[in-house]
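Q: what does this look like with zinc ion bound?
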Amino acid sequence: MKKYSFFLVVLFLCIAFFAQAQSYTRTVSVEFDAIPNSYTIDVAKLKYNKDFAYSLTIDDGYKDVWNVAYPLIQGNWVLENDIFQGYNYGSGMPFQKVGGYTFDDGCGHQVPFHLGLAINASQIAKNASRINWWHLQALYDAGWDILNHGHYHVEALPIDFEDEIKENAEQVDDHIGFFPRHFAIPANQPVYAPETTSQGMVATYGAVMGFQGVYNGGLWDVEGDIAAVNSGLQLLRTSVPVDSASMNLDALKAKINSIAAMAPNQTIWYNEYTHAVGAGNNQYPNVSNLGFQLFRDYLDFLQQDYSQQIWVAGLQEVEEYLFVRQNTTISNQSLNGNILTFDVTLSTSQPSQRHFDLSLLVNGIGANINNVTVQGTGFQSFNTATGLINVELVK
Ligand SMILES: [Zn+2]
């Protein structure tokens, strides 16, 4: 009986701890240049109030992620030799892109593109063509997403789901201290889809017909379907164009242009995956690979044409914004003279959640914004002209 009471006390303390830990809040104060007649507070559909989100995932942990993709985006030197296939980039290499690839955060800051990596723990440092744990840690620390892609990338039946899904996440956690709960199905094998939730995953991505959220060739209207983030989102992954006829920059551009044209009527989250970005010529001879020049030119296009409209972030980062947006309330609104204050509160979180960002739009009727202050720590930025306020919700 004593043991039983002790257990109940511990259980109660655990519940009390987690109940307290699960609320994330910030208090925002907006100073106007005059007393506004009224005001509006809206939550932006996407982070930074962007027109559309784009997630690019590189699968299977090949070394050109480290040798090519990351330095290219950061604006650092790219190695001349591609260890993955032994290619040399040829004349004009090594290539340096000063400044790297960024988009505008709506408040005058440049944010580096964040890509996602679909990782199999068994392949890490397996041979010279694969990244090692140190690389993965550095990419994670740079804000890139790490997606669970199965321990051994098993695609043929029978499949040990616990080993493929949970064990893979545990190994990543052991090495870099992050438990990946966003699962990218290996080889799009459909039998994984009903198994991921019971193995602790919060979202599943795969090219499997019948997924919830598989609409319009991978274009997800986050406005219409956002509630899906609360019930184990399953989302289509789309490969970069693979056949020789369509695999060119114009095809990639046309897809992005068509998505951009949907705004502001629809707010689209579009994602693509590839395997390799470091070949010496335009493409690898096999499917689903962007070559070096195509990858570089594609990034260049995204930055040059869409810096203001696009949000380039990994699948988990975007899903978590939508989750925060879906589960946040704005309360305690108070207008004292020309000062508006209100609380932004996220009531719950997902396991292993990394991002707690929310973008707000505040508008004063008959007054302009002079200044914004956000109480507490965490990321924040604002634009007095547009009323955009980016906050990171904290415990
Ligand atoms: Zn794969």
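Residues 16-21, 89-93, 212-216, 280-286 have pLDDT under 50 and may be disordered. The radius of gyration is 22 Å.
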